[in-house]
Design a protein that fits this description.
With 93 residues, the protein is an all-beta fold. Helices cover 0% and strands 57% of the residues. The model has no long low-confidence stretch (mean pLDDT 98).
């Protein structure tokens, strides 16, 4: 699977975890140079507290377009160390 935004591959992995129709990419498969930490957090009742990244590619930003769970609840332990995308990030095979 690939995560693509602004004509750049942000992440690529054959080992994503699908949860609620979202592909979670192992953090090692995500190109760190495109990630900027965000101050935004949200809470999922069964996954826990989510943190976000803003994507920056070729001078363009996509605010809070990637999220992850630093310490997911036990029910979501399989997404520890994984990142998912939205806000126009295309997920393809």
């Amino acid at each position: 699977m690939k995560a693509i935004w602004n004509n750049q591959v942000i992440a690529e992995s054959n080992d994503t975890v699908v949860v609620e129709n979202n592909h979670y990419f192992p953090i090692e498969s995500v190109k760190a140079e495109y990630l900027m930490p965000s101050e935004i957090h949200t809470t999922c009742p069964w996954k826990g507290l989510a943190s976000y990244y803003t994507l920056e590619v070729d001078g363009l930003q996509n605010r809070d377009a990637a999220w992850y769970y630093p310490e997911p609840k036990p029910a979501a332990a399989n997404i520890t160390g994984h990142v998912a995308f939205w806000k126009g990030v295309k997920i393809t095979e």
